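The following block was generated as part of the benchmark described in Methods. Ligand: iron/sulfur cluster.
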Amino acid sequence: MAYVVGEPCVDCKYGDCVTDCPVDCFYQGDTMLYINPDECIDCGQCLPLCPVEAIFVDDDGPPNPEAYVEHDADWYIEANRDFDYSDDKRVTEKEAVVHGPKWDESKA
Ligand code: SF4
Ligand code: SF4
């Protein structure tokens, strides 16, 4: 079982998810955030924090499969597994998340 960031985060990146992660295992890419599966302790605290339900458990699949247009959920599971988790991409504060073009202040 692994917690994964999926397609609703693409071009959005609200950043709420990073505020409560006890092990600071979120990392920032150009268009979305990723969860490092080697560091995540599967606590689930981030899951309800994302306003666009971008986070899901790989065994369960996303709660909003209709939002997966560009790639399917398996693609995002692999993307979270294979991301380059260098320390300079670690993001621990909401203010450090660079919002994408789909960021909507009314949901923040
Ligand atoms: S809270 Fe924001 S940054 Fe975190 S997964 Fe959701 S959309 Fe992405
Ligand atoms: S499940 Fe817990 S440890 Fe894993 S990313 Fe979410 S808050 Fe962090």
